[in-house]
């Protein structure tokens, strides 16, 4: 199973509850990080893999990274898409 280090770093380090950023502030911070080309390329690669990874539990990953607790896998994946995919690939 992939480790998805960059995704975990973003979830815990930007969207994590302990930081206290609201969604807009967190997305702005993530966009700023995306200006660093090597980071952008790495996160793009991980996102393309992770959203096709059937073995990954978004519910568990979001909980482990202290983003939030979700009742369902679908809810967790939807928020992950909003916070990650839609920021990196806004046209998709």
How helical, in percent, are the residues? 55-70%
Ends distance? 26 Å
What is the beta-strand fraction? Answer: under 5%
> Which regions are unreliable across 5 or more consecutive residues at pLDDT < 50?
none
Query: Total domains, how many?
Result: 1
Topology pattern, helix = H, strand = E: HHHHH
Number of strands: 0
- Number of helical elements: 5
Q: In angstroms, what is the radius of gyration?
A: 12 Å
Mean pLDDT: 93
Task: Please summarize the sheet with the most strands.
Answer: none
Judging from the principal axes of the Cα atoms, what is the shape? globular
Structural class: mainly alpha
Description:
The protein has 92 residues and is mostly helical. The chain has one domain (5-88). Helices cover 62% and strands 0% of the residues. The protein has helices at 5-13, 23-33, 37-50, 58-64, 73-88. The protein is globular and about 35 Å long. The N and C termini lie far apart (26 Å). 18% of the residues are buried.
Task: State the gist of this model.
This protein is mainly α and about 90 residues long. It has helices at about 5-15, 25-35, 35-50, 60-65, 75-90. The longest helix has 16 residues, at about 75-90.
Chart the SSEs and their pairings.
Elements: H1 5-13, H2 23-33, H3 37-50, H4 58-64, H5 73-88
List keywords for this structure.
single chain; mainly alpha; 92 residues
């Amino acid at each position: 199973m992939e480790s998805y280090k960059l995704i975990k770093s973003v979830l815990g380090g930007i969207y994590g509850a302990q930081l206290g950023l609201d969604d807009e502030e967190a997305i702005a911070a993530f966009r700023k990080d995306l200006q660093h080309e090597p980071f952008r390329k790495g996160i793009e690669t991980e996102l393309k893999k992770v959203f096709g990874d059937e073995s990954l539990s978004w519910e568990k990953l979001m909980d482990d990274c202290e983003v939030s607790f979700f009742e369902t896998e679908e809810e967790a994946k939807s928020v992950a898409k909003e916070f990650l995919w839609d920021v990196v690939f806004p046209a998709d």
